[in-house]
Amino acid sequence: MEELNPYWLIQAQQGDDYAFAHIVETCQRPVFSLCYRMLGNKEDAEDAAQETFLRAYKSIKKYDKNRSFSTWLLSIAAHYCIDQIRKRRFKVVSIEELPIPELPDVQPGMDLKISRNEERKKVRELLEHLNPTDRACVVMYYWHDFSYDEICQALSLTPSALKSRLHRARRAMANIWLEKVPNSLVAERMAP
User: Of the residues 3, 95, 151, 161, which has the fewest C-beta atoms closer than 10 A?
Assistant: First the structure.
């Protein structure tokens, strides 16, 4: 996410609602993207993005101008999503209650789109197996190109803790992937 013009931040800190609306318009896409990747569905991501901006609006006067605004804003989103994921873990859903997806009509070019959607779905499923903080680290690093320093600052982690979390998350995702791939496919791919 690109850094905002300091003018808009100063105006928003002084209570200018128009300036804050400009901030929302400029930052809504990256905030929604982070929330979507962490929560896994559009409705929850929209709610989380809205809550992020509400929280940012309420605390904009406390924003430290020496800190990256994008890091500050996305850390609000990440912490909110972590809380939502933790709350979700207490809900148990029966498999019978899950909706059955309908297969789309295949048209020219649709097979590529379907393939990409399937890949995204698989990545979201892998992310759901991670604990909330590890998921936030992965999303911020790989999808939002945050530096180690920015992630450490946003999630209150040390650099070594972040490296450890990213390593553990990659390993966990790889192991889960291998568990889901049928043995015949693994053997087929390993065959010369």
Answer: 95
